[in-house]
Amino acid sequence: MKDISDNIKKVTIVFLLCFIGLISYITYFEIIVAPKIVSSQYNQRLWAKRNEVLRGTFYDRNMKVLAKSTRVDKEVQKRQYEGGAIFSHALGYLDVKYGITGLEKRYDKELTSTNIKDTIDNILKLKGRNEEKYGNSLKTTLDYNIQKKAYELLGDNRGAVVALNPKTGEILAMVSKPSFDPNNLAENWKAINENKDRPLLNRATSGLYPPGSTFKAITAVSALENIKNVMDRRMDDTGVLAFNSKESLKNYNGEALGNIGFREAFVHSSNVFFGQLGIDIGNAKLKETAEKFYFNKNIPADGVVIENSRFPSLKSYEVGNLAQSAIGQATVLATPMDMALVASTIANDGVMMKPCIVKEVLSSKGEVLNKIKAESIQEVTSKENAKIIKDFMRGVVEQGTGGAASVEGIKVCGKTGTADHKEEGSGALPHSWFIGFAPYENPQIALAVIVEDGGQGGVAAANIASGVIRTALVK
Fold it and tell me: Do the strands 65-73 and 76-81 form a parallel or antiparallel pair, or are they unpaired?
């Protein structure tokens, strides 16, 4: 009798465990798995649901059409990207076979939703059930002319251009090259995927590069915050900063700048001066400043996802790496978007604005349903410190390494960068960087430009910046 009772208990326990396991799996499936299946870009029911409404239109900030949908038949609509490859990384793409990405994905719900007021109007007007339903549209922050010019100026180079309004965080241009035409994915998908230059990668937000001397803007802020009387500091720049008998840091071509101060070192991009600053500031404080500029952290943004820029933790005895990190080398990596935000923050008196790519959600009749408001992320540095760096950056273009960024009649501010790198398959030349803003008195545009393998001195990037600024400000 006891054996039977024990067996019943064992069977009961087994059934109880199976029941708990089944309930746990059902719960997990309903809460975790099912929503992913429902929202999957490959869910055919979701595509059928999308097709019930003619997808909304993308406009630039001046209401120029960037992408629109047309009805092919009752069950099919075609998405037409007016800018083709110029806007592919900014907008993303929509394709039944290849999925949905970028802004198309982020605002999918809005683009496939109809305004309730329009629906009520249709009912009151007794329109037929077959009347076309139109999705809401998006007025983006992008400027067609600036985006197009940036794309053209990059030419056949790999690289990226990001342009922002420093006062609002609005993204005026976001270009990545090489690019692809989202209108012909079926024809070109194989070639796109086999391209070693990775045209699907948005270099503007996901490309990680050593920032080179553009990082000196961050080091300069950190020096102002952490080194007493740094504005009065002078140093004999012999062209070489020696760490020991074997290791040293040199200026470009070993140029000796002589007895220089803080401003001169920034304007003429002295690695020797800034390498010593990095050592004196120390890793902990320099890292703290870099993280105020959102290195090692997620950058809040509307409509774009930005890869984390990276600044290392170093030991005090790693003197060479401490100096290298202060000039944007060692293991420092940054996205063009983050470096554009660095320039934007300096231009905006030390306040970093939240980057955004959508201005308004519009009904099919053009009524504003939702207006995206400008938001500040945080005060990164004081207004006084920002003004000092602004003056330094004006000097770079006026007297120093950034002359190629000049625009007639406009006071351009900036910082050039030469970034050594060792990526497999890359050319021997360093990357060319430029970050900056204009006009000096009342900044309207801030930007970052990188030209992969663009060569020494940041000239290639500065030339592109000049053309972008001219397009934005010269009417």
Answer: antiparallel
